[in-house]
Amino acid sequence: MVQQILRLDKASVSLAVQLLKEEKLVAIPTETVYGLAALATSSLAVARIYALKERPSFNPLICHVANLKEAERIGVFSPLARQLAVKFWPGPLTLVVPLQPDHPLSDLSTAGLSTVGLRVPGNPLICQLICHLGVPLAAPSANLSESISPTSAMHVATSFQGDARLPLILDDGPCPIGIESTILDMTQERPHLLRAGGLSLEEIQIIVGPVVCAVSSDALIKSPGQLKRHYAPQKPLRMNVLTPTSTEAYLTFGPGPFKNSPAYTLNLSEQGSLQEAACNLFSMLRLLDDSPTEGIAVHPIPFKGLGLGINDRLQRASFQKD
Ligand code: TXA
Ligand code: MG
């Protein structure tokens, strides 16, 4: 057996620890999306992530730790950064902080930067795995570069079918949040939002006051060309569509009714819940991408709460290949 998919439990966690210690890759469930994990301290292991994902450039990877104490061995936390970690970890928040001078991470994992993105994932067995390993995990989303992020073990298996370079996929069912973590840069005087995600800006601002938004809704609407194609289906995707064409599939939101609703229509949340919509986003995009249609039209999604993260993913998905 070159690749195993095992239910997440104590036995599969032990096997994962063994494989990771051998500098191999393991796909892990998190509350946001499935991650492609490797020892963050090993350049060989991290290089294997880039090779398997076919990532063209060396972006810094998020470093996953078991708790705040471990995070503080790697990064320097200001009082505000510590306050956010205490409030929201474990959870869908990545904090970018300056690296400690004696940090153990490989340069490939940090892309040679003097800062690091750290988070404690919400799945208790994954935190146990990191504790047993005694080493932080570098883990980007477990999909091929640019394609739709995985929110189930099956999505991961579809991307890397039987590939011996990924010997183990840990299966813990669908991800409860469904979009990647929110990334906050804590290295400047005011926190800066680098990526909208699974923790809403509103919740963060209750704790820290105004956050500088490098990714405001205005910026997204005005300059989609500046955004890199990412999270993308094979088919062309159009946003903010009220009337889809007869050859498109339709991804709707809210109770409707929807005009010209085609045969291949899926609703992100009939109740209009942005949490439910985030949770369904990537799996529904995959289903519509597989439907016999020429494109995907998406109904407007409100720009509040998790809607900021959902719109960010859709905007990048709609950006056409060169
Ligand atoms: O929810 C998530 O965050 C998932 C799960 C698996 O934890 N991980 C994830 O990782 O989305 P990835 O590699 O797909 O996205 C990491 C993002 C990249 O856009 C990278 O540029 C940014 O985090 N990042 C990481 N370290 C950074 C740093 N030091 N400064 C600025 N951005 C950083
Ligand atoms: Mg990703």
How is this structure best described in words?
With 322 residues, the chain is α/β, with parallel strands linked by helices. The protein has helices at 10-21, 43-53, 68-74, 79-88, 107-110, 124-133, 153-159, 201-208, 217-222, 274-289, 307-318; strands at residues 4-7, 26-28, 35-39, 63-64, 93-98, 115-119, 137-138, 168-171, 182-185, 192-195, 212-213, 237-238, 248-252, 265-267, 295-298. A hairpin with a 6-residue loop joins strand 9 and strand 10. The longest helix has 16 residues, at 274-289. The model is unreliable at 217-226 (pLDDT under 50). Bound molecules: threonylcarbamoyladenylate and magnesium ion. Residues 140-141, 149 line the site of magnesium ion.
Notable characteristics:
322 residues, alpha/beta, eleven-stranded mixed sheet, four-stranded parallel sheet, 15 strands, 32% helix, 17% strand, binds threonylcarbamoyladenylate, binds magnesium ion
